[in-house]
Amino acid sequence: MSSNADIYHEMIIDYSRNPINYGKIENPDVTFHDSNPLCGDSIDIDIKINDEKVSDIKFHGKGCAICMACSSVLTEIAKGKGIDEVRNITKQDVLSELGLEHLQAVRIKCALLSLKVLKSALYSYLGKHMKDSQDVDKLKEEADSLY
Amino acid sequence: MQSTQTSFQNLRKDFPILQRIVRDNKTLVYLDNASTTQKPDQVINAIADYYKNHNANIHRAVYALAEEATSLYESTRDKIANFINIQNREEIIFVRGTTEAINLVAYAWGRTHITNDDIIVTTEYEHHSNIVPWQLLTQEKNAKLEYIGMDDNGELLLDELDKYLATGKVKLVTFSLMSNVLGTITDAEKIISKCKEYGVLTLVDGAQAVPHMNVDIEKLGCDFFAFSGHKMLGPTGIGVLWARKSVLQTMNPFHGGGDMIREVHKYETTWNDLPYKFEAGTPNIADVIGFGAAIDYLTKIGMDNVREHEIELTNYAIEKLSKINGLTIYGTKDMSKRGGVISFNFADVHPHDVAQIIDEEGIAVRSGHHCAQVLMERLNVAATSRASFYIYNTKEEVDSLINSLNKVARIFKL
Hints:
The complex is a heterodimer.
Chain A: H1 10-17, E1 30-35, E2 42-50, E3 53-62, H2 65-78, H3 83-87, H4 91-97, H5 105-129, H6 133-144
Antiparallel strand pairs in A: 1-2, 2-3
Helix pairs in contact in A: 1-2, 2-4, 2-5, 5-6
Chain B: H1 2-11, E1 21-22, E2 26-27, E3 29-30, H2 41-54, H3 64-83, E4 92-95, H4 98-113, E5 119-123, H5 132-141, E6 144-148, H6 159-166, E7 170-176, H7 188-197, E8 201-205, H8 217-220, E9 224-228, E10 239-243, H9 245-248, E11 261-264, E12 269-271, H10 285-301, H11 303-322, E13 327-329, E14 341-346, H12 351-359, E15 363-364, E16 366-368, H13 373-379, E17 384-388, H14 395-411
Parallel strand pairs in B: 3-15, 5-6, 5-7, 7-8, 8-9
Antiparallel strand pairs in B: 1-2, 4-10, 9-10, 11-12, 13-14, 14-17, 16-17
């Protein structure tokens, strides 16, 4: 990737202009909010969980094109998957979907804010619904150390 | 006018960094001067000269080097006194920067003078450094923090101040002389004269004003004044708190340690004279000396010329930016009330995306909330892009900014 501006390819612009899964869910099973203190990007994710699966997921908030595109892609990946599968989504899963593997350090937080919110949301949900707190704590650590 | 611009163009050779090639073979266009300015050879050399030839601790030893270092350090205090018209040099306290200056007041003055139900008034367009220290203080003391609001033109609604003053509970009014986001120049004389009627102290954050216009502390009549060296060609890590002697005498020290004492016994200590009572420990000697060189440099140019140059550039930029479809400029267009700071948003493109795309052209602008989230809320935006000018910027650089924004429009299909 020769130029940093190459990250603004068609897919990013499209997703940022017309984000997927954008909005709120009525009576979500879990909702979580976080923001990026550096730039003020701010994301909320609402999740509906049925039979240990993410039956619906939506996000809303303010963010740059990278943040919006990654939130779209992440919610697409998570939708319909089992909680365990969603727990295992990695940053590479999100970045590679949009060709952002070489994103410069200063923008990585834009790309991964929604993943952090998703992992924290699951942590919050599992904390309430599961008994193995040690296992749940690992998820919190993982969310906190994403970037 | 041509000659003014030409002489400013000649200054560029003093700034080695302006020759830098960045990104894909682009010459640096540095438009983030409200954040920090670049440094001329004169400043860099003064710091190097201190370390190469005069390095010693100050105020103590009697040998030659220590005497030279002390004299160089103290000469900056005199230069500052001349530069912004301060009568008593002992009222000038060296600190790390504006943030530390304000925290010093909040701690050393606030802890003594603020009690239950007192009110501290600030404004909606303050930098976080003039909000958070007051939140900490008022929370600790169970006092109140109130805000003077702002109109849609980016000017303060000063009638709101009357309402607060009328309560009789206001102890301090604190405001920036120039907004770091909107460039609005505050009507300081009006605020200070209102406060004086009620015997209320005033703190002026001069971080954005002192580098760009003539400031006269004596005429201003405030009680505290803070600014930073690095926003006016000087090094980072050095700034000034000025405070009226009669106020400083009512304050306890900020930090305890060396240099701020007269006599230390096992269980009691007496304080050194002003300003040393507030300068504990070995200070930032090298950068104070570098700051002195920066003040010499600006004095030689003349602050009225600096202001004139920036007005011309800002007018030129606002005129060009206004012609771009979908571009919103925040703040007043009345240049008598505005410094060389332009915050803008381009259609629905996030400022981070704008900054990244124009960075490819070598152009450095700031994007984000500019440490002014209260103001961002008031403007109802998450962030803005901000271009801010200084003595070495040119109209050609403004043209480069305009061209690069056309690239943003292309990529985002505006």
